[in-house]
Amino acid sequence: MRGPWIPVNLSDEPFKKNRTALLASIVAAVVLVAILATQIVMIKRERRAARRNRGTLAQLDTQFQSLNRDYARLSAQLRQPVNTAVFDRSIFLNQLLQRKGISWTRMFADLEAVFPPNVRLVAVRPYLTADNQVQLDMVVGSTNPEPVIDLIKKLESSHVFGATALLSSQPPSQNEPIYRYRLSVSYAQKL
Predict the structure, then answer these.
(1) Cβ neighbours of residue 87 under 8 Å, at least 6 residues apart?
(2) Domain boundaries along the sequence of the chain
(3) Which partner from 4, 8, 175, 178 sits 20 to 30 angstroms from 146, CA to CA?
């Protein structure tokens, strides 16, 4: 028979159970390697996208430079004395076309809606202001001033017409037995 069992540890360090720590370290290493691989793939994609964007930007910059050269060439050509007359005529024709864009039928229908029955329209001249707004220069007549005051109130309260300015007035004469008033009113007709 053998004697009692005596455990003896002959190593310098006592025995430790490191299996769980080793397994956790391996899992952490695998996760970190997967994250590193994902980051590498994303960095490569971003570099390819940046390369494509730089190419597109270079192409657009080349087109922009070409357009600037064309603009400078055309601008210099328009500034030549030979072409200024043609350019001025073009501006005049464009303004004439804009003025012709005013609908007389619609303008008279809008005026008819606000004119009192005892006020007469003697003359009307539409024109465009510097900011492309339609302005009407009108001469109206009436046997007494009160209907014209009523007309000015209706013009200013209308959604089609705007601020009205009284430019001049003439009392009745032997040749013209009515009061005449020259008005300027803004008109909201779209061109």
Answers:
(1) 78
(2) 18-79, 102-187
(3) 175
Q: In the structure encoding, which two tokens stand for residue 98, read together?
A: 């804009």
**pTM score, whole prediction:** 0.48
Question: Per residue of the chain (191 residues), what is the pLDDT tens digit?
Answer: 566 777 666 666 666 677 888 899 999 999 999 999 999 999 999 999 999 999 999 999 999 999 999 999 988 887 788 777 777 877 777 776 666 667 788 888 889 999 998 999 999 988 777 777 788 899 999 998 899 999 999 999 988 898 889 999 898 888 888 899 999 998 886 54
Residue 74 is which amino acid? L
Q: At what angle do helices 81-100 and 19-78 cross, to 10 degrees?
A: 100
Burial class (CB in 10 A: 0-12, 13-18, 19+), 133: middle
> Looking at this protein, which amino acid is placed at residue 16?
K
